[in-house]
Amino acid sequence: MVACGEFSTRSELMRAALHAFVRSRAQSATPTPRVDGDGLVPTVVRLRPDEYATFVAYARTVCNGRPVEDVLAEVIRRGEIELKVHELAARARSTVQEAVERRTQAGALQESATDLERRGVVGR
Fold first, then answer.
1. Which pLDDT score, from 0 to 100, does residue 124 have?
2. How far is the C-alpha of 45 from the C-alpha of 69, rounded, in Å?
3. CA dist., res. 72 & res. 78, Å (int)
4. Are 87 and 81 in contact (CB under 8 A)?
5. What pTM was computed for the model?
6. Can you say whether the dihedral through the CA atoms of 41, 47, 51, 54 is positive or negative?
7. Collapsing DSSP states into helix, strand and coil, what is residue 43?
8. Per the CB 3.0–4.6 Å rule, which of 12, 64, 121, 123 could disulfide with 7?
9. Rg of the chain over CA atoms, in angstroms?
10. What number of other Cβ atoms are within 10 A of residue 7's Cβ?
11. Is the pLDDT higher at 47 or at 90?
12. d(CA 117, CA 61)
C-alpha cells in the first residue's frame, strides 16, 4: 500500500489500520436495541405512582382505553414534534442552573449569618 502510493509511510498505514480496527470494535460493542413485531423499540419509563395514575386516567377517559404505553409514546412523539426535544432540554438545563444559583445564594446567606453570629451582631 505504501509502494502503491495509497499511504506515504508505513506509520501512516499502521495508524489508519489501528484506527479502523478500534472503530470496528467500538461499533460491534454497541448493543442493538430489540425491535418488536410492530417495528418499535420497547423502553422502560419510570414514573411516580401519582404520575402513572394520571396517565392511566388519561388513557381511559381521553384516549378511549388505549394502553398507557401507547399514550406515553404519543406524548413523547408530540412533544418532540411540537416543542422540539432540544427546547425541552434547554428548559430543563435552565431549571437546573437556576437551582444551582439558588443553592449558591442560600450558601452565601448562611455564611453571612454565621459571620454575623461570630461577630456578635446576631444571636440564635
1. 57
2. 9
3. 10
4. no
5. 0.39
6. positive
7. coil
8. 12
9. 28
10. 16
11. 47
12. 58
Torsion angle of the four alpha carbons 51, 57, 58, 61, in this order, in degrees rounded to the nearest 10:
180
Q: Hunting for cell 444551582 — which residue is that? A: 100
In tens, the pLDDT along 57-110 reads 888 888 888 898 888 888 888 876 666 656 766 787 888 899 999 999 998 998
> Please, which contacts does 43-50 make with residues 24 or more away whose CB atoms are closer than 8 Å?
45/72
Q: Which three cell numbers stand for residue 42?
A: 420497547
Burial annotation 44-78 (CB, 10 A radius, 16+ → b, else e): eeeeeeeeeeebeeebeeeeeeeebeebbeeeeee
Residues 6+ apart with CB under 8 A from 79: 85, 88
Q: The cell 495509497 sits on which residue?
A: 6
Closest CA to 80 of 72, 70, 88: 88
What residue has cell string 470494535? 25
**CA–CA dist 71, 79 (Å, integer):** 12
What is the three-state SS of 76-92? HHHHHHHCCHHHHHHHH
Share of the chain above pLDDT 90, in %: 10
